[in-house]
Specification:
The complex is a heterodimer. Chain A has 14 helices and no strands. Chain A is mostly helical. Chain A has 2 domains: 61 residues, no CATH class; 233 residues, MetI-like (MetI-like fold, Orthogonal Bundle), CATH 1.10.3720.10. Chain A is globular. By secondary structure, chain B is an all-alpha fold. Chain B has 2 domains: 73 residues, no CATH class; 238 residues, MetI-like (MetI-like fold). The longest helix of chain B is centred in the first third of the chain and has 34 residues. The two termini of chain B are 16 Å apart. The chains are: A mainly alpha, B mainly alpha.
């Protein structure tokens, strides 16, 4: 069938394939986007009108009231603050640790390279598990503190290996000439390597920031009853689940829970948008970088 | 792991430059020569030791009747009692069933769908449309499970959820289905949510691998009269085989340690018999009611089985396809 019309660029089979593929991809596009558009539409719709249902991708009675209401949730404001702190601090410290380790591992003459590399790689394949980790945090007195959000995740093997593959791709001669100029290893790292690593650092920064911004479990597990250390996703979780599954909120802060119980659908959706949008604004600009980063990581890891 | 643990500390102590007492050996001299490299790596090695390796020491709790108020030497040792209790608990088998069911479904869907998506996206004509689909496909990856849980619950709800609305208007069903309230739907919902969230992201690696395939192979195949499906089957898929096997080994290692975020966010009290996975079981029976030793036994079981699965998968792959991760 295909061989009969070789002279043409596309055979008939090709054309049918292209059309089917186009339709399939359009369906995938819709399935991916629809839920977000739906949430967005509901968040801009009058909250009493929303109850009537039937809102798909366009608000029926447009209002900004839901977004104004959010500012009354004081726990959400705290959540915002804590989440921004942990995102900034966690990202900066994570970048420092990953880039330093990656640099030392990229040095073929580093005497303990093999040991550090193995020690790091092993952490990707095993873990002590949920309960032993919890007990460790208890022994370290980190429960009920802000630092529990930052300290356990500072070193990530996956990030180190991505940066390492990137550094391996840089010309080694740059380091050698710097060395001849009398630079020590730290200066080479700081002055030569780091500036060249900007693209991969942007990728890792995105990974770290998204991880910090989106995490809720550490708050639930360690700081569930500390209202001043609450995070955005955890507050959102309490609000989202307030009507359908209030029963599980044993750890939850009672006062916030009571407030959450009365929040209607439209306000829930407005909060969802507020919590989600910061990251959705950033990622398309970093797309080029993280696609390369993921690819590098896959090749090495 | 245990043999490795004391090393970083001794190393670090010696890394701090102290006046040499005796004649320096080659080892110490090399450390001094590379002191910046050691200063830049050893603090993090210690960090890893504390936060990633020390919890393994915590496994000793599984063999004790652990009381937080007592010191390590005062703890009462009970041998394998916690494991015997665990293996005699009927709930454990239910939880294990849920874990395996959801991870196997996730494994199959999490491979077949992203690979298919990557292959089809690669075949897509129209540069801008292709790029749009790709950018949009990453979007759900950046959203937390809290939000995804909320979105999925919304989409599947009986009042105004798009899924029920569509099914009813297409006359496939007469009454809206209470998806979230019935246990039999739960595994499917978790798998579908995961596919919705991660397909685009997981396809990145396959797309990159496909880009690396020699274009001349396709030209040659076309000259020989191979259609699109034949080209996909005989060139594209073999071309990304290495990538597939490496990722498969990694996933098999995570078969029973599948995490619990999605289960936690999508479940409710009506479906716990289908939603409880090992980590949630450890959370509920270990931490929330302070049975730390029992919880540790669950965690230890999960970790050990994961390592065994990983090594087995790696071994099998090494034999059959010569791919391996270690």
């Amino acid at each position: 069938m295909a061989s009969s019309s070789k002279a043409f660029n596309d055979t008939r089979g090709d054309k049918i394939f292209n059309i089917c593929n186009f339709i399939l991809m359009t369906v995938i596009l819709i399935i991916t986007l629809y839920p977000f558009l739906n949430v967005l539409a509901i968040s801009f719709n009058d909250s009493t009108d929303t109850v009537r249902g039937g809102i798909y991708i366009w608000p029926r009675e447009f209002t900004l009231e839901n977004y104004k209401t959010i500012f009354n949730y004081s726990s959400l404001i705290t959540g915002f603050k804590i989440t921004i702190y942990r995102t900034v601090l966690g990202t900066v410290l994570g970048l420092i640790s990953a880039s330093m380790l990656a640099y030392t591992l990229s040095r073929p003459d580093f005497k303990s390279r093999k040991f550090v590399s193995t020690f790091l790689a092993l952490t990707m394949y095993f873990s002590g598990g949920l309960v032993p980790t919890y007990m460790l945090m208890r022994h370290l007195d980190l429960i009920g503190t802000f630092w529990i959000y930052i300290l356990p995740g500072i070193v990530s093997a996956f990030n180190v290996f991505i940066i390492r593959s990137f550094i391996d791709g840089l010309p080694y001669a740059l380091q050698e000439s710097a060395k001849l100029d009398g630079a020590n290893d730290f200066t080479i790292y700081y002055k030569v390597i780091l500036p060249l690593c900007k693209p991969v650092l942007a990728t890792i920064a995105l990974f770290l920031a998204v991880g910090q911004w989106n995490s809720w479990f550490d708050t639930y597990l360690y700081n569930g009853n500390k209202a001043h250390l609450t995070t955005l996703q955890y507050e959102l979780m309490k609000i989202l689940q307030s009507t359908n599954q209030g029963a599980r909120m044993t750890n939850a802060n009672d006062m916030a829970n009571m407030m959450a119980q009365v929040s209607p659908e439209s306000i829930k959706m407005a909060i969802t948008i507020v919590v989600t949008v910061p990251i959705l604004i950033v990622y398309p600009f970093l797309q080029r970088y993280f696609v390369d980063g993921m690819t590098l990581g896959a090749v090495k890891a | 792991m245990e043999t490795l643990s004391p090393r970083p500390e001794t190393k670090n102590v010696s890394a701090t430059p102290k006046p040499p007492k005796k004649r320096k050996t080659g080892f110490w001299r090399s450390i001094l020569q590379q002191k910046y490299l050691y200063l830049m790596s050893m603090p993090f090695v210690i960090w890893l030791f504390v936060f990633n390796y020390l919890p393994v020491w915590g496994w000793t709790m599984a063999f004790q009747k652990y009381k937080p108020s007592k010191s390590f030497s005062e703890q009462e040792w009970v041998g394998f009692k916690n494991f015997v209790d665990l293996f005699q608990d009927e709930r454990f088998y239910l939880v294990l069933r849920n874990t395996l069911a959801m991870s196997l479904m996730g494994l199959v869907a999490g491979f077949v769908i992203p690979i298919t998506f990557a292959v089809l996206l690669n075949e897509l004509r129209g540069k801008y449309f292709k790029r749009t689909v790709q950018t949009v496909s990453y979007l759900p990856h950046f959203v937390s499970w809290v939000v995804v849980g909320g979105i999925i619950t919304k989409m599947l709800s009986i009042d105004g959820g798009i899924v029920n609305d569509l099914l009813v208007s297409l006359n496939i069903i007469n009454e809206p289905i209470q998806f979230m309230a019935q246990g039999k739907w739960f595994w499917g919902i978790v798998t579908a949510s995961d596919v919705w969230k991660e397909t685009g992201w997981n396809a990145i690696i396959y797309l990159a691998a496909i880009t690396g395939i020699d274009k001349e192979l396709y030209e040659a195949a076309r000259v020989d009269g191979a259609g699109r499906f034949r080209q996909i089957w005989n060139i594209t898929l073999p071309g990304i085989r290495t990538t597939i096997s490496v990722l498969l080994i990694m996933s098999i290692g995570h078969l029973i340690g599948i995490g619990f975020e999605k289960q936690f966010q999508l479940s409710n009290s009506l479906v716990t018999d289908y939603s409880e996975v090992l980590d949630l079981y450890a959370l509920n029976y270990g931490i929330n009611i302070s049975r730390f030793s029992y919880g540790t036994a669950i965690s230890m079981f999960t970790s050990v089985v994961s390592i065994i699965l990983l090594l087995t998968a790696n071994g099998i792959m090494k034999k059959t396809t010569k791919e391996s991760i270690m």
